Amino acid sequence: MDDETGTITERGLAGLLASGDMARASVMLEKLRRLMTCYRCAIMEVETKFRVLDAQFSARHERNPIDTIKSRLKSPESILGKLERRGLERTLESVESNLNDIAGVRVICSFKDDIYTLADCLLQQDDVRLVSAKDYIKNPKPNGYRSLHLIIETPIFLPEEKRQMRVEVQLRTIAMEFWANLEHKLRYKKDLPEELAASIAGRLSACAERSALLDDEMGRIRTILEGV
Ligand code: 0O2
User: Fold this and answer.
1) How confident is the model at residue 7 (pLDDT cuts 50, 70, 90)?
2) In this structure, what are the phi and psi dihedrals at residue 125, rounded to the nearest 5 degrees?
3) Catalytic choice (45, 62, 161, 168)
4) Strands 162-173, 103-109: parallel, antiparallel or unpaired by DSSP?
5) Mean pLDDT rounded to a whole number for the chain
6) Cα-flanking dihedrals φ and ψ of residue 156, to 5°?
7) What are the backbone angles phi and psi of residue 151, rounded to the nearest 5°?
8) Stretch 158-174: mean pLDDT, rounded?
9) Whose CA is nearest to atom 24 of ligand 1?
10) In whole angstroms, how far apart are CA 206 and each of 127, 152, 164, 200?
11) How far is the CA of 6 from the centre of ligand 1 (A)?
12) How far is CA 167 from CA 80, 105, 127, 151, 216, in A?
């Protein structure tokens, strides 16, 4: 995931738009900044929802289902890059209607069951609309990637309006996060010799399997301990 930059300049944006039109870039930059603020607010709303669920769960069950929450705003450079890769129009309207992952919230849990409990609780809230879901835990990617991905729409309340914003929520266990962070490094190492890359991919895939078994076994042990 990209870090928020917010540092893009008119000149930079004009270059990225490949138009060189500074006046247009200046107007667009201001609108982009406002849009990014809306996404930042949406992140805050979703983070709060999870913190509230965590606190409620902790009060009832004396343990916290959430280990960590990590959030990020996609950088303007990444946004424009993604529009370009997909052959989409490079306008703010296109950003809002085509890209679902400008705002990203990643919720990291100790146990796999908690992922589904939290997802259900979130989706039951009447101001949350599920746009789409991908369950890479029940259906892992061929490389071994596991996580539950939800694209949701939720409102933010601005001084003069209520605005629906899309947020990508990724829920995973600590073990899945550990694995994904290492695998992410492989994806961005473009200069690895082919044979080495294939061997590492194979080892990572084996790690993903072992790590899934570990998650399952830890869950079973927790269930036993809770029953004692
Ligand atoms: P980054 O650098 O993490 O932001 P979409 O973006 O939803 O339109 P896609 O590719 O179908 O298109 O989305 P998907 O499969 O839901 O994956 C979105 C994000 O999940 C990725 O964002 C990663 O953060 C994570 N992800 C998906 N597959 C993998 C994987 O195989 N390995 C790892 N480490 N992470 C994965 P980005 O934008 O691709 O990357």
Assistant:
1) very low
2) -70, 140
3) 168
4) parallel
5) 89
6) -120, 150
7) -100, 120
8) 96
9) 1
10) 40, 32, 41, 10
11) 22
12) 18, 7, 13, 6, 28
